[in-house]
Amino acid sequence: MSNGNNVRNATMADVARLAQVSVPTVSRVLSGAARVRPDKQARVEAAIQRLGFRPSAAARALASGRSEVIAVITGSTSNYGYAEAIRGVEEAARADGYTVIITVVESFDDDVVSAAVENVLNQSIAGVVVLKFDRAGVAALRHLPSDLPLVALSGVRDTGVPQAVIDETRGAEELTEYLLSLGHETVHHVRVPPSRREDGRTTGWKRALRKAGAPIPLPLDATWEPRSGRVVGRDLARNPDVTAVFCGNDEIAMGVIKGITDQGLAVPKDISVVGFDDHPLAELWTPALTTVRQDFADLGRRGFGLLKPILDKQAASQFSSVHPEMIIRSSAAVRTDSQRRKSTEGSGDASGAMSA
Amino acid sequence: MSNGNNVRNATMADVARLAQVSVPTVSRVLSGAARVRPDKQARVEAAIQRLGFRPSAAARALASGRSEVIAVITGSTSNYGYAEAIRGVEEAARADGYTVIITVVESFDDDVVSAAVENVLNQSIAGVVVLKFDRAGVAALRHLPSDLPLVALSGVRDTGVPQAVIDETRGAEELTEYLLSLGHETVHHVRVPPSRREDGRTTGWKRALRKAGAPIPLPLDATWEPRSGRVVGRDLARNPDVTAVFCGNDEIAMGVIKGITDQGLAVPKDISVVGFDDHPLAELWTPALTTVRQDFADLGRRGFGLLKPILDKQAASQFSSVHPEMIIRSSAAVRTDSQRRKSTEGSGDASGAMSA
DNA sequence: GTGAAAGCGCTAACAC
DNA sequence: GTGTTAGCGCTTTCAC
What we know:
Chain A has helices at 12-19, 23-31, 38-51, 57-64, 80-95, 110-122, 135-143, 168-181, 200-212, 226-238, 250-262, 296-311, 339-344, and strands at 69-74, 99-104, 127-131, 150-154, 163-166, 188-191, 220-221, 244-247, 272-274, 291-293, 319-322, 325-327. By secondary structure, the first copy, chain A, is an alpha/beta fold. In chain A, helix 1 (12-19) crosses helix 2 (23-31), helix 6 (110-122) crosses helix 7 and helix 10 packs across helix 11 (250-262). The interface between A and B is large, with 65 and 65 residues. Chain A binds a DNA duplex through helix 2 and helix 4.
């Protein structure tokens, strides 16, 4: 069953000899580009089978100048959204006969980014998908040559390369409005590392507050590590002004909730907390997370969908955008009057540096 | 800063002409294989710089018969352990100048596996790392030619290909013994989809029970979806014999805990539940999960470390094994007498089909 | 040390 | 339809 017995791979010349045809005819059979007489066709196929012939991608790429591999450039492979997006790209690419190479860009440091991009460019690739979820992705985008088929996966649509996006600005805005509608006077915000000066999630949050005439607190920062949210959560719990918190993603929200309960407060009774993404564990968390669902795998698939016509030199659309859906569960609740003022008296200092 | 203005990439011939040397000399400068006179060396480097020359990996692979790309074959890209392992492989490979291609094998169906393997083999690759975490991985391994540099990443060491392993059998055994030491008469088990007839985690659990002379309940099955654990948790809660549960991974454990609390029982008061892996959220869960830490990224790095000498045709070790560390937190507690018998009277039927 | 010559295994014209 | 002839951009002898 396994064809592991071909020490040296057979070449097209071997196949041609065995089938008694010329090399280009073998090539034609393989590519289906031109019609070949049935008997020869059959002989060639038999020979291929018999020899366990496998065409050399390198030779093909060299001779044709084309290739069937696409590169994914990303800042991470294991964070939830990243991993799912990669899955989507790989899935769509594989379904279409493409192979995907992955390169991670560990920081937005110029040298690191160049090195990673060089590495990718050295391969003969047909096109690139970059995950523009963070500053590393943005930097990679800048380093890529403009003549290369390229699409970005993103949370905010902006000009430049074609991109597939989930409109997180809109999602964040709706979620913040929802919190406001629950009676909270304002909503605090914990950011994940942003892709630019300001993330779409932050923009949407700010916009909703501004529209409502609510005060805009200074956003707090977390890393991609869920535990970083815990520290922030403790700080939040000490601030009597905090009654509602919008977190940059669900994992941070889980950390924040843990931090809040560390301080003896309850979610959502004392403070409402919402996340973003609808992580598989969000519904299992206690309390179940109110969040915004982001279908990253779909984003990845759409990204490849945008790339495909470019590779085929067909007319291509520049954007594919989707509105994420709000998922209301139980981590956010109606604000009850003076719930916080009361509970803070005994729980330490109210960190003052939190209003902008 | 970006070299996006080279419509047609410069070739070595272009560089040679500009530097007034021969093509092989350029090649020598690039590979460092042979000494070149300093002045020529400098001219070549200048020309490379000026032209933005980038060698063609395809041509190089074709001419030399070697390549600097390795393939990772895996059943998933987004499950926690998989994603981390891939991260480790990519990290180590990149540090060593290798590029990695990812192919996912969606099932252990023969056609699917062959197609995926063919796809990989068609590329000119130097070697393969397969994630032998599930049946798809095991199947892929069987389909790979034996003359290809190959290592497997695994939870149980077995014969055949070189492999990097985290000894999950041992980890599961210790964890089960720990539960037993807490006074539980036996430990129930919820499996994730196993890689073979029986997973190392299941084997270790069984071994510990056998050694202790404890009854061995029939294992229950979950999928990779955390929510599948919730359903199982509910069933478990209805069975008065259940006082301790060992889950195949942390995400399932979280689901199981949720299912148990759905039924009005408490963890660990009524039932102790432990997971496996030490997922980033395990410490943040309520109750914080007692588990076994598995460093998958390290596993990936070790896997590449095993592959490297094989690629270089040096003497290579066949195995790299590590013992996972037990992490005691608060989801498992001492068994209090008759805790379950009492609590079950009001909570519905005791599903009987659970003892082997 | 360095250049000339000969491929690596395929695809792309181009005749026939 | 099908074979012949040229490369694709490198690396690898092998002289010198």
